[in-house]
Amino acid sequence: MRSGRDQNAEASQSVEGADLRERLTRWGTFALLLIFFIFTIALWGYAAWWGVVKLIQLFF
After folding, report:
1. CB-neighbour burial class of residue 15 (10 A; exposed 0-12, middle 13-18, buried 19+)
2. CA distance linking residue 46 with residue 30, whole number of Å
3. 27-58, pLDDT tens digit by residue?
4. Neighbour-count burial for 17-45, b at 16+ CB within 10 Å, e otherwise
């Protein structure tokens, strides 16, 4: 049979593990969204630049 101290230590470790997993999940989600938005903005910027270049070529 385990003592109360052992059980408290296990409970503390499981809470710390859950907290770490929650923080990693939150930061991972934030990083993926940041990458997605940067990629999307870069694509829109490239498309706008391409359109401007094509319009310039059309008239000159």
Report:
1. exposed
2. 24
3. 999 999 999 999 999 999 999 999 999 999 99
4. eeeeeeeeeeeeeeeeeeeeeeeeeeeee
Placement of tokens 């989600």 in the chain = 29
Q: Give the integer Cα–Cα distance in Å for 5 and 25.
A: 30
Could you identify the residue written with the tokens 């470790």? 13
Longest CA–CA separation in the chain, Å = 87
Q: Judge if pTM exceeds 0.90.
A: no
> What tokens does 2 get?
């385990």
**Two tokens, residue 19:** 């907290």
